[in-house]
Amino acid sequence: MRTPVLAGNWKMYLTPAEGRKMAETLRSLVAECAGREIVLCPPYTALSAVSEALEGTNVFVGGQNMHPAREGAFTGEIAPPMLIALGCRYVIIGHSERRQYFGETDATVAEKVRSALAEGLIPIVCVGETLEQREKGVTDPVVEIQVRQGLAGLSPEELAGVIIAYEPIWAIGTGRTASPDDAQQVCAFIRSVLAGLAGDKAQETRILYGGSVKPENIKELMNRPDIDGALVGGASLKAESFARIARFE
Ligand code: PEP
């Protein structure tokens, strides 16, 4: 049995005060939610306030990115131990916005994933195709390369501990959601790629869907056998809507 994961990616939204308020509201709305991992990934500047507000609750905190080194002369970057010191358990790696606007590649993703695991963070590794790639019918090979290269060199145990977020780029922030069947098909395909790398351990890897997830579509997505949760952008900014998603309402 894989424990579902509902992770909110706030991107570059919410100040520390706004983040604290949202977290304080969310924690009471999901206090009764058992058997799932609920995660908020605020901007770096709000991590401390959000972590404090969620201490001792069933909601965890993650970073949206990290540098692979433990420390160093990398102006503007944040190291994994810094995330851990602020209460993070998770870190998003290779989000399509990082790939698109900040030049991240499967090679940088692989480096960050290895570093996150070595430091004790659970990586949420994002993969997904563009609209053009989907229309050309090359979704599976595109996603397979991202999975194989982004997770290169990991042992079966490490592969079991990674979370993969399948996020078709055309569905992110657009209001267009992949149909639950299409999302399931790609998530099952990802699991088959993982099985080639990790054997039976691939059954333990959590695979999330991301792309315009909202309270109205979470239930149907969660009904699919290879979808183990969601990575949520816009709808995670408001406590009420993210709580409904976390409760599968
Ligand atoms: C995301 O940022 O990963 C995402 C899926 O965003 P949205 O839910 O807004 O489409």
From TrEMBL:
Reaction(s) catalyzed by this protein?
A: D-glyceraldehyde 3-phosphate = dihydroxyacetone phosphate
What domain of life does the native source organism fall in? Bacteria
InterPro entries (alphabetical)? Aldolase_TIM, TIM_sf, TrioseP_Isoase_bac/euk, Triosephosphate_isomerase, Triosephosphate_isomerase_AS
**Residues binding substrate:** N9, W10, K11, G173, S212, G233, G234
Query: Can the keyword Protease be found in this entry's annotation?
Result: no
Instruction: Kindly give the PROSITE patterns that the UniProt entry links to this protein.
Output: TIM_1, TIM_2
A cellular component annotation (GO) from this entry: cytosol
Q: Which positions make up the signal peptide? A: none
The answer to whether keyword Cell membrane applies is: no
Which Gene Ontology BP terms does the record give?
Answer: gluconeogenesis; glyceraldehyde-3-phosphate biosynthetic process; glycerol catabolic process; glycolytic process
The subcellular localization recorded is: Cytoplasm
Q: Which GO terms describe its molecular function?
A: triose-phosphate isomerase activity
Q: What Enzyme Commission number does this protein have?
A: 5.3.1.1
Q: Where are the catalytic residues?
A: H95, E167
Q: Which UniProt keywords apply?
A: Cytoplasm, Gluconeogenesis, Glycolysis, Isomerase
Biological or metabolic pathway of the protein: Carbohydrate biosynthesis; gluconeogenesis; Carbohydrate degradation; glycolysis; D-glyceraldehyde 3-phosphate from glycerone phosphate: step 1/1
Per its database record, what is this protein's job? Answer: Involved in the gluconeogenesis. Catalyzes stereospecifically the conversion of dihydroxyacetone phosphate (DHAP) to D-glyceraldehyde-3-phosphate (G3P).
Query: Its quaternary structure?
Result: Homodimer.
Query: By its UniProt entry, which HAMAP family does this protein fall under?
Result: TIM_B
Give the matching NCBIfam families. Answer: tim (TIGR00419)
State what protein this is by name. Answer: Triosephosphate isomerase
